[in-house]
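Q: My labmate handed me this sequence with no annotations at all. I'd like to see what the chain might look like in three dimensions before we decide whether it's worth expressing. Could you predict it?
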Amino acid sequence: RMWTKEAIENLRSEIRSLQTALIETAEKHKRTVLPGLTHQQHAQPVSLAHHLLAYFWMLERDWERLGDTYKRTDMMPLGSAAMAGSGFPLDRQMTVNELGFAAPAPNSMDAVSDRDFVVEFISACTLLMTHLSRLSQELINWSMPEFGFVTLDDAYTTGSSIMPQKKNPDVCELIRGRSARLLGNLTAIFALLKALPLAYNRDLQDDKPLLFESFDLTLPSVRLIKAMLETAAFHPSKMASATRGDYSTATDLADYLVRKGSTFREAHELVGRIVRDCLEKKKGLERLTLKELQSFSPLLDEGVLSLLKPITSMSSRTTEGGTAPSSVTTQIRQAKKALKICK
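A: Here is what I predict for the chain of 343 residues:
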C-alpha cells in the first residue's frame, strides 16, 4: 500500500506534465481549423486547440481518479496478524502515526484479504491508458499522408526493415497495444478475486505482477506521449485544406435559416437539397454564390456567405465549452486554474 501511494504520486505528477504540454500546444493553435469528426466522417469545423484540450479534461479526470483511489488505500493493515487480530497489546494508532497512514483497518479479516486497492489502481491506470491509446490513434491517423496534419519526430518513429521511405509511428502503436495489456490485467485481477472466500488465500500472491506491470507500462506511456507532443510539427495549412469542400458548414446554413424564421425541420431538408446539388456539380458550399443560394430560398441573404467558411463556422461556436477561439481562451484559463499555473 505504501508502494501504491508512491506510484500514484508519480503518475499524477507525470499527468500534470502532459496536461501542461497540451495547454502549451493549444495556446498556439486556437485559430488552427481542422475537420471535427463524428462516425469518422467530417462533421463540423473545430480548432486544433479545442480538439487537444478534450484530452486535457480526460486526463484531469484520470488525475482526480488516481487521487480518489488513494483515499481508500490509506488504511493500515499492520496488527491484523494472520486474520483475527493480535493477542498482544499493540498500539495500532501509534503505528498509524509512525507510518503515515490515515487510520488502522477496522476489520482484520478484510485487512488481510482486501485487494480493492489493487483493483482500483489498475482500473484507474487502464482508463488512463485508454485515453492515451485514443490520442495515439489520432496521431497515427494525422501522420498518414492522406491526412498530413502532423509530422512526428524521428525519435518516436522507426523505419521499415525493407521499405526505405517508411516512417512508422511505432511509439503510438506500442502505447495503443499496451493499453490492451492493462485491460488484460484488470480482467485478471477481477477473475482472481471473484470466488475467493475470506480470509487470506494463496491466490492473492498473483496480484503483485498485475499491479507492478500496470504501473510499469503506464508511467513511461504518459512520458512518451508528452515528449511526442512537444516535438511534433503540426501543419495548419493541411488541416484547413481538409475542411474545404467537405460540406461541414451545412449546419451553419441550416441554423441561419432558422434564425430567419424557418423551422429546423424545413431548414434541414432544404440544406440537404443544397448539398445534393453541390455534390452533383462537384462544388463546395463555400463556393456558392448568393444567386445560387437564393435560388433555393429567399431567406438566404448576403449575411450567409461568410458563415459558409470553415474558419467563420469554427469561430461562431462561442458557447461555454465551444470551439470558438474566445471560448477556447476561457477553457485554457480553466485548465490553467486546474493546474494552478495561472499568471
